[in-house]
């Protein structure tokens, strides 16, 4: 298509459709790599033509609209997405942007984490008890899925210890480990039922069930990777240390989380996790780097759909379009 404006409109419409299929119906029809390519093309066009920018563009939005079958939950702090880097050069540019904004020249500490391929949830604990769980939804409003989340064995219903804040919002990823996914699909095949396309869709479809007895039978797991709104004293000065506190209260944190220095440390972490990707018991689609110091995070702030202080370093895609299109999906 030679008319760039027509191309931009076509990309927006196509990405809206893919978002609906992915976030609302849990049934994507294209691999993530294809979606990412189209999104990058759209972002490049919008950057080249600022006059065509539109706050309703898929490039400006997080996730998808919450499904009305679930109660609405307003997030007190928005649940955002993450920006991506795909190469060494882009990682270097990310570090440079961060250092320039902070007016620093020395490498910073980053908290490095696996990028779990599941779906984001917010858990609210009051007086140490789990009282609410919600999906990310469109970032400001999610779906209330408390009963379903209560069936996930690794999520504590009561926190350990007694030094937790009166109200604590924890954020993390619900995912389906590979072994559970394979066993579930094998059983579905044996019964002549439809199989899930990948563990991410299996996790999303399983968590967003109207009957929590179905969720309870699905092999779901959870790792937390951050906090949302917290009442009272700050939990710490660094993201890494906060994750250790969450762990102390019985909340599962990935054993792969590390504090590393600068771009070189991030790259070493990336290379190590990538080399072990196939041996990890769950699927990941990259790693995430977060500026560790909370005071620096606050200075860096956010752009419309993602924090400036973090980025996802995506791995090469594993799925092929042909494979996806040949699989029947189950929600
Ligand atoms: P994202 O995957 O780009 O990044 C943000 C999400 O990463 C968070 O919401 C959280 O759920 C997750 N995450 C995992 N580990 C994390 C960690 N350690 N710290 C923080 N967050 C962590 O998320 P997005 O905004 O939901 O989706 C965009 C991506 O989803 C696209 O790049 C594409 O790959 C995929 N997508 C695919 C289709 C499709 O049709 N195939 C459609 C829409 C989106």
UniProtKB/TrEMBL annotation:
Which annotated residues bind NAD(+)?
32-36, 81-82, 113, 136, 173, 290, 314
Which residues are named in the active-site annotation? 115
- What protein family is recorded? Belongs to the NAD-dependent DNA ligase family. LigA subfamily.
> What does this protein do, in the record's words?
DNA ligase that catalyzes the formation of phosphodiester linkages between 5'-phosphoryl and 3'-hydroxyl groups in double-stranded DNA using NAD as a coenzyme and as the energy source for the reaction. It is essential for DNA replication and repair of damaged DNA.
Q: What is this protein called?
A: DNA ligase
Organism of provenance = Zobellella aerophila
Name the gene that codes for it.
ligA
What portion of the full-length protein is represented by this chain?
1 to 331 of 677
